[in-house]
Amino acid sequence: MLTSKRMRWALLVVGLLAVVLMAGGCTTPTPETIVKEVTKEVPVEVTREVEVEVEVTREVEVQVEVTRVVEVAVAAEPAVEVPFEALWASSAHADAEAEAFVHWDEDDPAEVPTGCAKCHSTPGYLDFLGADGTAAGTVDNAAAIGTTVTCITCHSEATAVMDNVVFPSGAEVTGLGDEARCMQCHQGRESTVSVNEYIAEAGVTDEDTVSEDLGFQNIHYFAAAVTQFGGLAMGGYQYEDKAYDTKFEHIIAIDTCIDCHDSHTLELKVATCSECHAGVASSEDLKDVRWLGSMVDYDGDGDVTEGVYYEIEGLQEILYQAIQAYASDAGTPIVYDPHAYPYWFTDADVRYSAWTPRLLKAAYNYQVSFKDPGAFAHGGKYMIQLLYDSIEDLDAGLVAGLHRIDAGHFAGSQEAWRHWDEDGEVPSSCAKCHSASGLPTYLKEGVNVSEPLANGMFCTTCHDPLAEFTRYVVDEVEFPSGAVVSFGEADDSNLCLNCHQGRQSAVNVNSAIAGLDPDTVSDKLRFLNIHYFAAGATLFGTEAQGAYEYDGQTYNGRFAHVPGFDSCIQCHDTHGLEVKMEACSACHAGAEDSEDIRMNTTDFDGDGDTDEGMAGEVETLHEALYAAMQNYATNVVGTGIVYNSHRYPYWFTDAEEGYGTWTPRLLRAAYNYQYAAKDPGAFAHNGEYIIQILYDSLDDIGGDTTGMVRP
């Protein structure tokens, strides 16, 4: 029995537990069993713990939110229209059934390998850009099949800033625009560099030795950028010691892939072409186009009016015949099939394997010419050079009657235009006459700045405005001597005089030798070079003072021919530069060549021949002067002298070192000798003036003029 006091404490504890249980029931109406141990120090000794199970039930009001489903009519969002999608869908880039995109469908695994993915799948191109998080500039992963070239291939943050392209040769072209996106793929897969490396790896040193380690190297397809950038990209096989046209420059504003092709349909913008190329109504008509700077018969068929496409076609036929003849002579006939890999077969339809280095190079260039079907427009002259050189390498006799280059103004592979390739630009001192834009700059500003490299003159070099093809107006021209001459106010031939005037004059020579003893060697002297084709200086004679004129002598001035044939463009074809011999023969009966012409019977050179043309008279005097110079150099100066017209600085010692022991007398003679050599048409431009300066030089240096006549 508990005492009454203990009972009261027990009831108090039970009551407190009940309160706690009721408070819990306010939140959870579910009956619970609660066990709670309470220990409290009181003055009463507790000797027993009691567990009490209490059930508490309470009603609680709960507010419930009811959600009702209601159908509401919502207007559909307009479909997203992809710009140019319909145009793109019609292009080869979108053709999901094309071999270019399905070639790997049956492979195991079915994927586009890394070597092909960049240009045959969208994921591969994005990989190349680094847009997938991998390094840019390479393709790290094979791509899934089933894609084409889509919007995101060309339109991304990476392509928006792309301005350079690295070709398979390793050559890099910078400063590009949107066309860089195209050129990443339209660049081929091989080059001069890789072909040479392949031959070297095979260990073949003889050009005509068959090697089982050689196989055909394929440029791949549609390498249009290679054709356009020519010698810069080195996509064709470029033969050693040969020079090649670089980038084909069309006209300003129409000079890139996307200037000429619709970037989505890929079709040519024929309407744009027709603005200059009359008669062009379709892409097929472009095959008939050739410009006035291409006036030679490249393929030797006698037709200089056919389009460049057909000139290339003619050279392809000649090269194929040369390839077959070479292969047959080597013992294994060869056949080409442009539609069947690996393209070259024996006449038994077996893969061709009897390759020599010489045959491989020619076959490679043949393939290059076929796999860019637009080569005639992308860089026709570069392609002509590759084909010509391949023919020549197989059989030099086959190039008789063929032409590799154009007339000088447009001969882009020649030194006059290629001399500065390693510098990357033409310096201001040369730009006026050795760049396409130099002359217009000079005519406008009166000075020159450095200019871009060029393959020769453009239409815009002489014509302004281009639409009317009128020429720049030049009234008079200042020559290096300071003399100002003219064919007449606004005469078109004044344009020619800006470059065909030389770079030195009698004034320069006199300034160099002033105060020096005529026969004493001076270390202050160096050879002064008139430069090339100073026809204008020759024609104007003593008025221009281009040649060195001796004191006490008189010299002829401008050579007056006959009305109608008295200036540059009256005697020369403006673009072909050839002499208009048909016009000449109207007066000069029987003359087949300008070198045959003479107008008097005076025997200037004293050789007894008065029937030879004026060119013959000049030639004899020129030879006599050289002999007299050599005699003077050996016996007076003490150092023999040798001339090389093709090698700067032209004058050398017997040991082939640059000549440096000049006396004033020897320098004057050497200057005039070079003057006559560098104007090969001097006999016609002003024959008697040239004879005067050669005669006086010969006489001054101690040569024998017996029997000769000075005009």
Cα radius of gyration in angstroms:
43 Å
- DSSP helix count? 26
The biggest beta sheet reads: 2 strands, antiparallel
Q: Which structural category fits the helices and strands?
A: mainly alpha
What is the first-to-last residue Cα distance? 167 Å
Query: How much helix is in the residues?
Result: 25-40%
Note poorly predicted spans.
Answer: 1-47
What best-fitting shape do the alpha-carbon axes yield? elongated
Number of structural units classed as domains: 4
With strands numbered from the N-terminus, the spatial order across the biggest sheet is 1-2
Overall pLDDT? 90
Give the beta-strand count. 10
Strand content: under 5%
Furnish the topology, listing elements before pairings.
Layout: H1 4-25, H2 85-89, H3 99-102, E1 111-112, H4 114-120, H5 122-129, E2 143-144, H6 151-154, H7 157-160, E3 165-166, E4 172-173, H8 179-183, H9 192-202, H10 224-233, H11 257-260, H12 270-273, H13 308-330, E5 335-336, E6 344-345, H14 357-371, H15 375-394, H16 415-418, H17 428-434, H18 438-445, E7 477-478, E8 484-485, H19 493-497, H20 506-513, H21 535-540, H22 568-571, H23 581-584, H24 614-637, E9 642-643, E10 651-652, H25 664-678, H26 682-700
Characterization of the model:
The chain is elongated. Mean pLDDT is 90; it is low at 1-47. The longest helix is centred in the C-terminal third of the chain and has 24 residues, at 614-637. Strand 5 (335-336) and strand 6 form a beta hairpin. The chain has 711 residues and is an all-alpha fold. The chain has four domains: 1-55, no CATH class; 87-211 and 261-273, no CATH class; 212-260 and 280-418, no CATH class; 473-700, no CATH class. Strands 1-2 form a two-stranded antiparallel sheet. The protein has 26 helices and ten strands.
